[in-house]
Design a protein that fits this description.
- The protein is built from 17 helices and no strands.
- Helix 5 packs antiparallel against helix 7.
- The longest helix has 28 residues.
- It is globular, with a radius of gyration of 21 Å.
- The two termini are about 35 Å apart.
């Protein structure tokens, strides 16, 4: 059994900056979700996102299929080693050293790698009923593993004076404000005004750090518990994560369906494509024909409903600890609603500022 001191910190040197950059790319929804996550959730979320980024990169159509299969086969073996408590990859070792990490907790990640193998192989979703299970395996199970680690950290019954600090994110330290509480609308207006007025004189990461300090004051951290929560104890979280995973899967397919189709993959359920009369040539065309446009609008509405359902399904008692899920849902819905014309008319800096403000408001409202 590891000592308390050994399990209190994920790793002496933390996670390599290269892995961090791939896990939470600056300006992405994953970045804002991690930045505004509850402090006890950040280490687990960063490690899980880093892990999934490694194998999901192999599902990109630009990767040669044989190479992708070889790398994913290695990752399947690595998940087995992680489950046994003997990982070799730096990310896996980082995860294994997290407070509350227990080998069996990572077993569901094997389903995520298997789903990635199916993506590389071009295995289509035969029916729309297959999509939720596939999305849950590929995207949901990793998020649920991070949630189990977060719950495990939160539930440790140890006096505050003996708690060890979790590793901090690579942004400015988060400090609790000594000012009196402000209404959310006033706080949002103040944050937007301050960020906009200083955008020209400081980097975006500084503005993000300033907003994060208001959204997520650091609570007294917790040490490692004796055991991770069971899957059954997180059944309420599973409903929220399942809806979020399906919405993200649809949103990404909508954004990239043409490239996927041109690489020989079927981005949407086969039964729905047949019912809509959509052909492969329609999916590959530069401009979608009318029958495809109507189907894409249906999928967009379905994804939007999934993001809303994910937010609504997150239990009130868990919303503060798992506010990163709410941020992912809010940003996913915002980006789904953006029109191409609006995207072209808005600078990247302004889009980033708007995303940061929405993430901050969402996280603040979940506390």
């Amino acid at each position: 059994m590891r000592s308390r001191a050994a399990s209190a910190a994920p790793a002496a040197s933390g996670l390599d900056l290269g892995y961090r950059a791939r896990a939470v790319p600056a300006g992405s929804a994953r970045y804002w979700a991690w930045l505004f996550a509850a402090p006890p959730a950040r280490d687990a979320l960063l490690g899980i996102q880093a892990l999934t980024a490694e194998w999901r990169a192999e599902t990109d159509p630009s990767v040669e299929r044989g190479v992708a299969h070889l790398k994913l086969a290695w990752w399947q073996e690595e998940i087995e080693r992680l489950t046994r408590g003997a990982p070799v990859h730096p990310i896996s070792r980082y995860l294994a050293a997290l407070p509350g990490a227990d080998g069996p907790l990572f077993q569901p990640l094997a389903a995520a790698v298997a789903a990635a193998v199916d993506e590389v192989s071009g295995v289509p979703l035969e029916t729309a009923l297959d999509l939720p299970a596939h999305a849950m395996a590929l995207r949901g199970e990793p998020l649920l593993a991070a949630s189990r680690l977060t719950e495990s950290w939160h539930d440790a019954p140890v006096a505050a004076s003996s708690r060890a600090s979790p590793s901090a994110p690579s942004v400015a330290p988060i400090a609790a404000s000594s000012a009196a509480p402000r209404p959310a609308s006033s706080a949002a207006s103040s944050a937007a005004s301050s960020a906009a007025s200083s955008a020209a004189s400081r980097p975006a990461s500084s503005a993000a750090s300033s907003a994060a300090s208001s959204a997520a004051p650091r609570p007294a951290p917790r040490p490692a518990p004796s055991a991770a929560p069971s899957a059954d104890s997180l059944s309420d979280l599973r409903d929220s994560i399942r809806a979020l995973a399906a919405a993200e899967h649809l949103a990404e397919a909508l954004a990239d369906y043409r490239r996927l189709a041109r690489s020989g993959r079927v981005p949407f359920p086969v039964d729905e494509l047949l019912a809509a009369g959509v052909e492969t040539t329609d999916l590959c065309a530069d401009a979608p024909p009318e029958r495809l446009s109507g189907y894409l609008q249906q999928l967009k509405a379905r994804a939007a409903g999934g993001y809303r359902a994910a937010s609504a399904a997150l239990p009130a008692a868990r919303r503060g600890r798992h506010r990163h899920l709410l941020v992912l849902a809010a940003l996913g819905l915002r980006r789904l609603d953006r029109s191409p014309m609006a995207e072209e008319a808005t600078t990247s800096a302004m889009r980033r500022l708007k995303d940061m403000l929405l993430a901050w408001q969402t996280a603040r409202g979940a506390r």
